[in-house]
Amino acid sequence: MENPALPAPQPQPLSVSDERTWAMLAHLSILLNLITGVLGPVAALIIYLVYKDRSRYVAYQALQSFLYQLIVLIGGGVLVGISWAISGILAVILIGCLCMPFALLLTLAVVAAPIYSLIGAIQCNSGQDFKYWLIGDWVRSTLTG
C-alpha cells in the first residue's frame, strides 16, 4: 500500500532519440487513415496523452498531428462532399461542369494531406521543429499556456 505522504514519482523524460521517434510516429499516424479510415487521429491523441508529461516536443508534435488530421478528415471531407454534390447537381445545366475543377482541387488537397504529414515526420526524425501551417502557433500557445 502506498504512503499518501510520499509524492508520486515523476515520469522520466524521454531521450532525444525517443522524442524524435515518437514525434515522427505522431505525424506518420495519418497513414493509418489510408487503411482504417479514421484511426490516425486516435493514434496521434494516444501518443499525446501518453507522452505529454514526459516531453513537450512530443506533446506539441502529436497534438498538431491530431488537430491537423481532424481538420483534414472532417473539414476536408465535408467540403469535398459538398463541392462534388453541387457540381453534380449543377452539371444538369452545364454550370456544374465549370465547378468540377474546383471540386477536383479540393479532393486533391485532401489526398495530398499525408504528404504534408510525411514532411513533418521526416523533419521531426532529423531533429528539426515542424509546425503545421495555421495550427502550429495556436497549438504551441495552448501548450505553453
Query: Which percent bin holds the helix content?
Result: over 70%
| Major beta sheet summary | none
Distance between the termini: 36 Å
Compute the CA-based radius of gyration. 20 Å
Mean pLDDT: 88
Q: What structural class should be given to the helix and strand makeup?
A: mainly alpha
Uncertain spans:
none
Total strand segments: 0
Overall geometry: elongated
Helix and strand sequence:
HHHHHHH
What is the number of domains? 1
Question: Strand percentage, roughly?
Answer: under 5%
Helix segment count? Answer: 7
Set down the secondary structure blueprint:
Blueprint: H1 16-28, H2 32-36, H3 39-51, H4 56-90, H5 95-111, H6 113-125, H7 136-144
Verbal overview:
By secondary structure, the chain is mostly helical. It has one domain (16-132). Helix content is 72%, strand content 0%. The chain is built from seven helices and no strands. The protein starts with 15 loop residues before the first helix and ends with a helix.
